[in-house]
Amino acid sequence: MAIFAHPGDVQIDRAHNAAIRREIGDRLRISLNAERTPVMPGLQTLLERLAAEDRREPRPKQH
C-alpha cells in the first residue's frame, strides 16, 4: 500500500524523527510511572519497540 504525502506535509530528517520518538517515549514513561497503572499488553509491546528503535539509532549531537 502506498502512502502519499500531502502538499503541506513537512519532511523531517532522521535526527529529528529520533528526537521526537525519544520525547514521546520519555513522556509516556513519566506518565505511566506517575499513574502506577498496569500497562496494557499492546502498549507494552509498542513501548518495547520504541526502546529497541532507540537502541539502534545513534543519538544526534546536541547543539
Head-to-tail CA distance between termini: 38 Å
- Structural class category: mainly alpha
Portion in helices: 55-70%
Question: Uncertain runs with pLDDT below 50, 5 residues or more?
Answer: none
Residue-averaged pLDDT, rounded?
78
Rg, please? Answer: 15 Å
Write the element-wise H/E pattern from the N-terminal end onward. Answer: HH
- Measured by DSSP, the beta-strand proportion falls in under 5%
- Report the count of strand segments: 0
Q: In one word, what is the shape? A: extended
Q: If helices are DSSP runs of H or I spanning 4 or more residues, what is the number of helices?
A: 2
Taking the sheet with the most strands, its summary is: none
Task: Tell me the quaternary state.
Answer: single chain
Descriptive report:
There is one protein chain. The protein has 63 residues and is mainly alpha-helical. 60% of the residues lie in helices and 0% in strands. α1 packs antiparallel against α2 (41-56). It starts with 13 loop residues before the first helix and ends in a 7-residue tail after the last helix. It is extended, with a radius of gyration of 15 Å. The mean pLDDT is 78.
Q: Topology of this protein?
A:
Layout lengths: L13 H22 L5 H16 L7
Helix pairs in contact: 1-2
